[in-house]
Amino acid sequence: MVSSSVISSSTVANKRRTGVNRFIIYKLPRYKIGEVGSGVDYMYLDSSVESWQMSKFMVNTSQGAIANTLNQLYMGKAYKSNSSVYALYNDAPPILDYIQGYGHTKGVLLFDRSQGFWLSHSIPHFPSFPERGYLYPSSGKVNGQTALCVTYQYEQFLRIAKQMAYLYPRFYNCSVSAAFTEDLPQLAQLCKGSKPTLASDKRMEQLFSIKGDKFVSFVKSEHYVEDIYTGWAAQALHADLLVESWQRQGHDLPSNCSLPKHTMNIKRIQLPGSVMFRSYYDHSKWCVSQAYEDQVTCVGDLNREKPQLWRGGGLICSFNPLIYKAFRQLVNWYISC
């Protein structure tokens, strides 16, 4: 059976492992301004702490927030059981060749008829196949990365499955047994490699964690040819957004103030203290409302760049004031319209 909650790891020495409602990690890039780091250290935020904490573990070890969570799949052998559903997806999966046409989205689902977790992240070639155990790719050391993991009850996964159909993720390892196919026809189709029929080109869904925290999932298919941040999320959330995403020169979209609510590119991040890094070395995808009173934070799949207008992808948005404060204070410099 899937654990009763996401398994996290402490950022405080000698604190025992505990189950948490949700956690976010921010894996720091190797190249910071004036400094070269390890590329595997990360900050950590969950419902038990009010601000970013540096993890005492490295992201490439078998201990830590993501490793302990995924070990429910790897060490628990859930991938060999018909009593749970799991799916590993990544448009750039480990080992396998890259194939065009899938959504620009990365993550893990693991749940049974009681509950489970949805881990959404930005790390290419991750996670490893279950039979190989937890491995962090060397390619994931250079750039910054983010991951959001939330524990949901089973009925919420019926909604998440519908969102997956729009994302059209590349499921490179998955299992949806016959006992679940009636409840989860979209996941069963995706697991078999087929593309579900969509009712529209985008979809929004409210989700509630196992402890009642509200999230809003925005997902778009490749048929919604628009920047998800500007054309949809900012307008639907009624908030001007500051967006952090991988900004490759010549591919990035400029800050946009053509619609009622604006979208502005973050160019530099400052960690608690004096450490800073540029967006060029940050492969994470997130945004916060510019105005403090809106308190919107989204963690997502897509970069603000032209090729990804034609890609499926999504955002998971929170209205938690502590999450907002943690991300908003990271914004050191952004490009106004």
From TrEMBL:
- Catalysed reactions, as listed in the record: Endonucleolytic cleavage to nucleoside 3'-phosphates and 3'-phosphooligonucleotide end-products
EC number(s) of the enzyme? 3.1.22.1
Keywords, ordered alphabetically: Hydrolase
Which Pfam family is one of this chain's hits? DNase_II
GO annotation, biological process: apoptotic DNA fragmentation
Q: Which GO terms describe its molecular function?
A: deoxyribonuclease II activity
Return the similarity comment. Belongs to the DNase II family.
The protein's name in its UniProt record: deoxyribonuclease II
